[in-house]
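Repro:
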Amino acid sequence: MSVLLTTTCVVPAAGAVLTAALPAGSSEARRRTTKTVALTVSAVTVALAALVAVRFDPHGARYQLTESYSWIRSFGITFSLGVDGIGAVLALLTAVLVPMVMLASWHDADPAPTAADGAADPDTFEGRRRTQAFFALILAVEAMVIVSFYATDVFLFYVFFEAMLIPMYFLIGGFGDRAGGPESARQRSYAAVKFLLYNLLGGLVMLAAVIGLYVIAQEQGFGTFDLPTLTGAIADGSLKLSGTAQNALFLGFFFAFAVKAPLWPLHTWLPNAMGEATAGTAVLITAVVDKVGTFAMLRFCLGLFPDASKTFAPAILVLSLVGIVYGALLAVGQKDIKRLVAYASISHFGFIIMGIFAMTSQGQSGATLYMVNHGLSTAAWMLVAGFLISRRGSRLIADYGGVQKVAPVLAGTFLIGSLATLSLPGLAPFVSEFLVLVGTFTRYPAIGIVATFGIVLAALYALLLYQRTMTGPVKEGVRAMPDLKVRELAVVAPLVALTVLLGVYPRPLTDLVNPSVDATLSQIHRTDPAPAHPVAATSGGEQK
């Protein structure tokens, strides 16, 4: 039995413990040692996640590199891991983004010289431990997210789905954005609590559904949480769920995933969390943690409850459509750069969920690609915005102007992130958004047509943001702004390169995810609609 998946999960978890246990101190040398250790661990995790993706055979079994260890035997709970194409790609995305976040956040956890604005004094225990805590929490989030992408036991997935909230809570509340003004400490606390309460509520509803699924399965001789066993039994009819039971269980799972995703109207925690967090933590939220919600919709909602998924698909598509337009409209009107990116992400997640529940091969393939491409493009956009905010000390759009004249490289990378956000052809998000719209239009043409309005709004908020911050006269607070440094270029360059590469040549991703998409559609007994065309018949070479 291979232990590659377990190793990939254990390395960042062990790295988190090691980072937290390093000798405390406020000296620059000790902080640099902590950061170097954490960055090295994240680099090793990238290599392991890449090895998993390389060893995955798209033409092989649905779940590969499987591992299973007994955990709570009396309830049929195991520590079971297995990877499909979608999980392999999203785990690799997580592994790639974490070192980028660390490099971008290199000085975000350095203790302030005073305790003002809720910052830790470097002479206190909290001040000495601040750097260790920050980077250990990032590694803990990475480990829990990767376990979630690999887990093939429903209960195991639930545990880590909920556990990742704890380090994220401390990252938001304890290491928030210092550019938020004198009330930032209180606002960070509010944002962290709101994030935790919303997601805990979703998790509690899901726990009730997990227990209900187990009770029903046990009554029919399936006393297990093993996902392949349960989905196989449901597919062949040996495990029977009544329509009412399946609908109730589906809603329990979907509610938790919709909060995490976030789907309108369960999205309101996201702008607060991203606005008050550091730029690196904001990337972890929207590009890493939130992807667990959309991934779980594919793996658990559609796999375990195929009939209920088809029953609720039209309603979910309407909610997704509202989220697309609503998020884009609010992004247009934002005065805060980070909240603008947050509302743009709500719009993008609407596209992802719409692609999933369109239940076509193009839609689901596009949704999976969108998870990856949104992660890359939004990470680039948000991290460059973070560099911009750290230089000026303000998140307000009105405080910027003429940046391209004093920091042309920063402005250029920000432009690429903006163009990727509006899905410019040639950049990665275009491919996924196009597939989502085509896949939706073939089954729900009205929804597909209205959703295209979101593209127009995306162009509006992305280009307006660039125009107001980067062009025009140079404002007083911008005149001395330095351009991107070597460390910052090392963060942005790989993200830009991947965004361009996958926009031109997305086949490496589609080859991995398409078999898993086909397997999902087969589970729910869905096929692509036949294309509409004029009916023609021929007889003796003549058209009738």
